Write a sequence for this structure.
């Protein structure tokens, strides 16, 4: 009978609708919180730039030139005597000051903001690092130490209902592409209609973004499980150490001869001419390398070059082409999640879609309180007699 | 037919708010904010060398300060077995003289087996020392310093002094 088929089909659609509603409903507020903090985290660096002049790279004049790494080192030594530099980061063509991580003779560490044109220390990161705070809030609920794993699992597990909501959402709303041609947001037809329209509109427009977020966040969950079981997919191998014979023996009290950072940069340029170095990591022991890295042709992944600090030989390069296909995919997950690989414009795109996703979660809850509850009751009522009928037939 | 009783006040509150309960998750970051800032300050060395300072140790012509990095039992590191992390600071006068520092359980057999290499800066460096299976609470840690002039100097620290926590853990594991 055609009547039964129709009712069964609509009952199936209704089931998907109810599943869609229930996937995120019990955790909607948590999901909302994570989406909102994640959206802010995308542009946290830019927010700091707006708020704090110390992190800006203002040129003193139109003809100012960038200082070399060795000049920066000398300037830091002059302004903070004895401080050992561990790391310098400098995004290419950046509006941001150099970030120079140092440890001082009293054992304390800090991040100094150094003007790349004048090598003047403009300020130091205080106890409240907004960028790190928002990232920790979004990624692991600010839990620290061993607890941070729990937070990490809680947040990354949200990828499951997120992916489920995306799939069931498309199943329920098969003709979502209509929204692309004729967007509809009825404001004057009551709240249920408004929130429903907004939910469909925001959902349809952000399908690719939600897919990216759900998959990359799912990878974070998988990675945590792999880490906790000591499973590695890396092909990088054991980090190289400087051979004993290369480390010079000097007379007592004499300084150990090392190459300058300029020489290291030269060695890197000879090895990988198209690499734009954005960070330098200093040797963490006498047997460690100077590590220089930056983005190459594939912007999502960093390439690194390890230089022997005594003789300037390049002893390891790690390029995009050295990675396995699996590493290319998994290594792209984090930049795809944060959107930090193509410039401020992409971060702003991520911010907008992040806020749309946040709205989606909220509107979903609003739709539920006005509709899904009723639908659930209907579905349960409808299925009960059907099941009873089946039992009777047996 | 059972007549629908009007729900009690508590039940209706539950009906109304049960799906918003996940908002309570924000309590977690609020409660853990002080711990978060403490942890950051700790990693920046603003809370001392480590969580428990062992004290100054003379090693040949030099001296170092040694500390248990974290006040906790050794970590399981998968196939590598168990490891315990220590922090070290070189004396101000020997910052430019000491090339490397190593730590291990028991006496090193030769120059290749001096143990875990400390990494960081002369002012604060850490090493994850592996704990061999046969280690007992009465064993000693051997600290080796290597000078830029090629000389080696050693000192020993009883495990009970270096980390009472680790000693207790070893005794517990033995039983």
């Amino acid at each position: 009978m055609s009547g039964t088929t129709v009712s069964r089909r609509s009952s199936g659609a209704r089931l998907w609708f109810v599943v869609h509603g229930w996937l995120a409903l019990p955790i909607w507020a948590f999901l909302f919180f994570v989406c909102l903090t994640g959206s802010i985290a995308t542009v946290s660096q830019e927010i700091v730039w707006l708020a704090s002049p110390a992190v800006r790279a203002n040129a003193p004049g139109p003809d100012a030139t960038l200082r070399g790494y060795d000049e920066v080192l000398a300037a830091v030594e002059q302004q903070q005597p004895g401080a050992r530099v561990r790391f310098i980061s400098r995004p290419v063509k950046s509006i941001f000051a150099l970030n120079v991580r140092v440890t001082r003779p009293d054992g304390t560490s800090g991040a100094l903001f150094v003007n790349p044109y004048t090598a003047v220390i403009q300020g130091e990161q205080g106890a409240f690092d907004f960028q790190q705070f928002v990232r920790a809030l979004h990624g692991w609920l600010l839990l620290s130490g061993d607890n941070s794993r729990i937070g990490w699992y809680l947040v990354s597990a949200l990828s499951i209902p997120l992916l489920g909501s995306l799939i069931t959402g498309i199943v329920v709303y098969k003709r979502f592409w209509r929204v692309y041609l004729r967007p509809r947001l009825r404001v004057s037809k009551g709240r249920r209609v408004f929130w429903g329209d907004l939910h469909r509109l925001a959902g349809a427009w952000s399908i690719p973004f939600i897919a990216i977020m759900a998959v990359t966040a799912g990878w974070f969950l998988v990675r945590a499980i792999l880490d906790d079981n000591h499973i590695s997919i890396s092909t990088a191998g054991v980090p190289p150490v400087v051979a004993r014979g290369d480390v010079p023996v000097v007379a007592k009290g004499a300084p150990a001869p090392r190459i300058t950072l300029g020489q290291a940069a030269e060695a890197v340029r000879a090895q990988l001419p198209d690499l734009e170095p954005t960070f330098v990591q200093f040797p963490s022991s006498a047997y460690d390398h100077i590590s220089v890295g930056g983005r190459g042709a594939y912007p999502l992944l960093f390439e690194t070059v390890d230089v022997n600090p005594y003789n300037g030989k390049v002893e390891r390069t790690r390029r995009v082409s050295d990675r396995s296909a699996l590493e290319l995919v998994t290594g792209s997950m984090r930049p795809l999640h944060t959107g930090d690989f193509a410039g401020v414009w992409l971060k702003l795109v991520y911010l907008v879609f992040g806020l749309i996703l946040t709205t989606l979660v909220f509107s979903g809850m609003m739709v539920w309180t006005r509709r899904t509850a009723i639908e659930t009751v209907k579905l349960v009522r409808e299925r009960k007699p059907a099941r009873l009928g089946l039992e009777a037939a047996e | 037919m059972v007549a629908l009783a009007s729900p009690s006040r508590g039940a209706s509150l539950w009906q109304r708010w049960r799906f918003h309960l996940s908002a309570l998750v924000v309590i977690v970051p609020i409660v853990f904010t002080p711990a978060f800032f403490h942890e950051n300050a700790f990693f920046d060395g603003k809370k001392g060398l480590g969580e428990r300072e062992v004290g100054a140790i003379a090693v040949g012509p030099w001296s170092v300060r040694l500390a248990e990095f974290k006040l906790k039992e050794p970590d399981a590191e998968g196939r590598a077995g168990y490891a315990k992390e220590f922090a070290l600071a070189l004396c101000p006068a020997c910052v430019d003289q000491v090339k490397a520092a190593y730590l291990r359980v028991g006496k090193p057999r030769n120059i290749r087996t001096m143990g875990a290499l400390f990494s960081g800066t002369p002012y604060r460096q850490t090493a994850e020392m592996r704990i061999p299976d046969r280690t007992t609470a009465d064993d000693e840690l051997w600290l080796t310093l290597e000078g830029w002039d090629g000389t080696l100097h050693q000192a020993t620290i009883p495990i009970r002094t270096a980390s009472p926590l680790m000693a207790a853990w070893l005794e517990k594991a033995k039983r």
About this structure: The mean pLDDT of chain B is 92. Chain B touches chain A through 48 residues (CB under 8 Å). The two ends of chain B are 66 Å apart (CA to CA).
